[in-house]
Amino acid sequence: MAKKEKENTSGSSSEKEKTTNPNEKAGFWDETKENVTVGAKILSEEAKQIGEKIAKYSETIFGKIKDNTNEVIKYGFDLTNEGVHKAQEMAENLKDDFEIKKLNGKKKDVSAQLGMKFYLAIKNNANKVPANLIKNKEVVSLLKELEETDKEILKLSELKNKK
After folding, report:
1. How far is residue 124's CA from residue 120's CA, in Å, rounded to a whole number?
2. DSSP letters spanning 105-118
């Protein structure tokens, strides 16, 4: 009896295979192919939409980065420009100070020469001021040089104060 059951069971599976039509198998694969194609189209559309959204976000982000970068560059340029002007102004002030110090040094030298002339003139005249001392060419020249130096110092000081 077990033998007959085995034959019946094996007979029924071959009957199922026989009842499955080859046209039905082809229809299944055609339908599967169509479903896969439709799914791929849907995924393609969704990927396209996602790509467009990402592109818009990227454009917005990079636009903001570009704008901010331009602002930073402009700010840096303005800051550099301001720094250069300040440095130039300070250099001018220092130059003026240097020129004034230089002129003051010259004034001290001329004053020392003038003082030495007065001292020698008085010493050589029995410790009395000679009557023609102010008419001496060297003394007059030194006095004029002192006067010119004072004028230059005043001129530079006025220029410096205007800045």
Report:
1. 6
2. HHHHHHHHHHHHHH
Measured over the CA atoms of residue 41, residue 46, residue 52 and residue 54, the dihedral's sign is negative
Can you give the C-alpha Rg of the chain in angstroms?
Answer: 54
Supply the pTM of this predicted model.
Answer: 0.47
H helix and E strand count, the chain: 3, 0
CA–CA separation, 133 vs 115, rounded Å? 12
Tell me if 48 sits within 8 A of 55, measured CB to CB: no
Under DSSP, the state recorded for 126 is T
CA separation for the pair 134, 128 (Å, rounded): 14
Dig out the tokens for 41 from the structure.
């189209």
pLDDT at res. 1: 47
Q: What are phi and psi of 21, to 5 degrees?
A: -80, 140
Mean of the per-residue pLDDT values of the chain: 78
Q: List C-alpha distances in Å: 53 to 48, 58, 67, 131, 152.
A: 9, 8, 21, 104, 73
How far is the CA of 107 from the CAs of 76, 90, 96, 138, 142, in angstroms?
46, 25, 16, 15, 10
CA distance 160 to 100: 10
